[in-house]
Amino acid sequence: MERLLIEGGHRLEGAVQIVGAKNAALPQLAAALLSPEPLTLTNLPDVADVRSMMTLLEHYGATVLARSGAVTVDAAAVVNREAPYDIVRRMRATILVLGPLLARFGHARVSQPGGCAIGARPVDLHLKALSALGTTIALDGGSIDARAPDGLRGGRILFGSPSVGATETALMAAVLARGETEIMNAAREPEVADLCACLVAMGAEIEGAGTHRILVQGGRALRKARHEILPDRVEAGTYAVAAAITGGQLELTGARLEHLAAVGEALEAAGVRIWPTDRGLMVSRPGRLKGVDITTEPYPGFSTDLQAQFMALMTIADGASMIRETVFENRFMHVPELSRLGANITLQGASAMVRGGAVLRGAPVMATDLRASVSLVLAGLAAQGETVVNRVYHLDRGYECLDKKLVRCGARIQRLRD
Ligand code: EPZ
Questions:
Q1: CATH 3.65.10.10: does it fit domain 2-19+231-417?
Q2: Where UDP-N-acetyl-alpha-D-glucosamine is bound, by residue (predicted)?
Q3: What CA–CA distance (Å, rounded) separates 26 from 350?
Q4: Which residue among 263, 327, 394 has the greatest number of ligand 1 atoms within 8 angstroms of its CB, and so is best to mutate?
Q5: Could you tell me which CATH number the domain at 22-228 has?
Q6: Is 241 among the annotated ligand-binding positions?
Q7: What residues contact residue 402 under an 8 Å CB cut-off, 6+ apart?
Q8: Ligand 1 pocket, 245 CB below 6 A?
Q9: CA 39, 131, 22, 414 torsion-angle sign
Q10: What pLDDT, in 10s, does the model give residues 299-356?
């Protein structure tokens, strides 16, 4: 087991290269299963979840060739077998192979993913989407068994509430369904729009990407394709908070401000300066921080994946901040750990009242999920003395070389192995 030893109190200064988005890479790797022609993806992040997805594709018989930042998946010889529970248990995004396998082979079985630290994480909307395209779904022995022996046919999918993953399942299935599919109340996250761009590069016909209504003309033959993954807005937002919480200045090369609008607005209201440069974004915090209220929402609202990071920042701001989490039902696992560092936070249902002005003091803390873990690292950067963040495998699932990138900008961090 590895842990990070952080000596706080050092302002960060320098540049950080923002890598490709994990949450765009995962669905696009799954999309490679749709086609017998190779798909090459560039700008893939080197993180554990992406490596797990590539291992899963090989489990299905696809060949995955990684060469200088590009990965080519050749799924011509895929054998349609079940995704085993031990892979699904480790990574919920495995559910994303269900749509492509069903669309291509008329049948797919995937272990039903359980819940995780941030919530029950049901997949009912994924199954609703597939049913709308002519699929028979059965649940047996903990597995989802999806069948469409005559192939999928286009239809209308109306989501009661937007879901990133379910929209991605709907898109990938619709690409091979006969006829037109209309997806209503689709998720508008940039990663969904990037999946659409990848599918179009593969030969699909899609309009409305990034809007709440997407139309797919299915049944087109898919071709060999190449696509560049968009930059990771969550990684960018995380380093923006790192600059702000240490009173430093970081240039986030490759970051796009338009993907961080709601987060950027909240940071500016808190006293952080953000401006575009010809290489990406500059983030600086010259003066004092102010408490700001936020509510997480589906895109383009404030990203739930940056809630924990923003909360860490608010613990040292002047005044109070009310933080409401509306996307997941249990995404405050970082609160008791931040409190161990001296933060003053009161939980009430889906809201956290952060009473700012804390003087954070280093202590051993426990990582629980990807974004909660990084909020503890951020708080450790500002805390007096040493903070030890345990179970950093959570971090490595979604952040590429986080500790090395921070050390290059002036942080004092050691990665210790038990
Ligand atoms: C994606 O998860 C991301 N993961 C999450 O990032 C992100 O937090 C989330 O979208 C919201 O933006 C990947 O893209 C791999 P949802 P996803 O379906 O697709 C409920 C990270 O830290 N729901 O948009 O699972 C669900 O429980 C991760 O990088 C259903 O009820 O999220 C949640 O309350 C964490 N039924 C809400 O919808 C369903 O069938 C939004 O979930 C599906 C979802």
A1: yes
A2: 92, 121-125, 305, 327
A3: 28
A4: 327
A5: 3.65.10.10
A6: no
A7: 374, 377, 395, 396
A8: no
A9: negative
A10: 999 999 999 999 999 999 999 999 999 999 889 999 999 999 999 999 999 999 999 9
Mutate to test the pocket of ligand 1, among 23, 126, 297, 399 (most ligand atoms within 8 A of CB): 23
Cβ(122) to ligand 1 under 6 A? Answer: yes
Is the C-beta atom of 371 inside 6 A of ligand 1?
A: yes
Structure tokens at 361: 């003091």
Asked if residue 171 belongs to a known ligand binding site, the reply is no
What is the tens place of the pLDDT at every residue in 150-184?
999 999 999 999 999 999 999 999 999 999 999 99
Extract long-range pairs of 358-362: CB within 8 Å, 24+ residues apart.
358/315, 358/316, 359/316, 359/384, 360/8, 360/315, 360/316, 360/384, 361/385, 362/6, 362/7, 362/8, 362/386, 362/387, 362/388
97 lines ligand 1 (CB under 6 A): no
Beta bridge mates, 213: 184
Locus of tokens 């600086």 = 284
Residue 404 labelled as part of a binding site: no
Portions of the chain given CATH number 3.65.10.10: 2-19+231-417, 22-228
Q: Where are the beta strands (DSSP E) in 287-418?
A: 294-295, 320-324, 344-348, 351-355, 364-366, 386-390, 412-417
Distance CA 408, CA 244 (A): 17
Catalytic residues: 116
Backbone angles phi, psi at 363, to 5 degrees: -165, 165
Element (H, E) at 249: strand 249-253
